Amino acid sequence: MDLATVIGVTLAFVGIIGGNIVEGGNPGTLVNIPGFMIVILGSFGAMMVSQPLSVVVGLPKFILKAFFGGSAHDSAGTVDLFVHMADKARREGLLALEADVESIHDPFTRKGVQLMIDGTDPELLREIMEIEAEAMKHRHEANFAALEFVGGIAPTIGVLGAVMGLMSVMRHLDQPAEIGPGIATAFVATFYGVFTANVLWLPLGNKLKTKSKHEQHALNVVVEGLMSIQSGENPRIVREKLEGFLEPKARQKKDDLKEAA
Fold first, then answer.
1. Distance between start and end Cα atoms, the chain
2. Pick from 110, 87, 108, 107: which is nearest to 98 by CA?
3. HEC readout, 192-225
4. Distance of alpha carbon 148 from its chain centroid, rounded?
5. Rounded to an integer, what is the distance from CA 117 to the centroid of its chain?
6. Residue 157 near residue 39 (C-beta atoms within 8 A)
């Protein structure tokens, strides 16, 4: 579970709804089924018009990654894996790595190692892996675009809901007691639009975009590791090269473990 996302969304809800209560507001007035339908269904309906069906169908699973999806790649672990394989390949040859392929859980890394063992030309291997990484990036960007579209359109749909609510109020001007509550209800739709856009859709899109950048960075570690092993580099050189991709704190932690050993 991504605690930053869960805590962040919780803080936003507590801050906004709690602030409303402190000001003397009644949270119950923010519950409005018609306004919710107008904003949520209207926003996602507009998004479906703007995006391919394949993106729409996969969007819920993609959003869940912001809450429950950890990093698919452990870069520090990947470094150790490639150092181990580099050492084994120098001592026993690339074919000796065949026994390690099934133990590699990441499909991207497993595919690259298998292609390397099969004797794929280095330049062709790099090209294949970079195409795979680029395709993944393209799929992610389609989902970012969908979330950013919803975040951009939701406030506008909220204003549309408010206008519709005010139109209803205008039909009851002969009943002054209902005008105030009617106007308040009308503006709930605007609240839904601004709230969901700036607390959910846009922040979630940005979080997933950041996760995707980290994943692309991790894929670069894999590609460089494959190239290093295939060129027969010394395991120590492989480690030095690949640890350059790690954050300083991750490198320091690995140094501390070496010293402890």
1. 32
2. 110
3. HHHHHHHHHHHHHHHHHHHHHHHHHHHHHHHHHH
4. 12
5. 32
6. yes
Q: What is the mean predicted confidence (pLDDT) over 148-175?
A: 89
Model confidence pLDDT, tens digit, residues 49-97: 999 999 999 999 989 988 887 655 678 889 999 999 999 999 999 999 9
CA-based nearest residue to 204, from 151, 153, 157, 142 = 151
For residue range 194-248, list pLDDT tens digits in order.
999 999 999 999 999 999 999 999 999 999 999 999 999 999 999 999 999 988 7
Position 207: which residue type? Answer: K
CA dist., res. 240 & res. 97, Å (int): 21
In 3D space, the residue among 146, 129, 126 whose CA is nearest the CA of residue 63 turns out to be: 146
For residue 236, the tally of other CB atoms under 10 A from its CB is 11
**What is the DSSP-derived secondary structure letter of residue 30?**
G
Q: How far is CA 151 from the centre of its chain?
A: 15
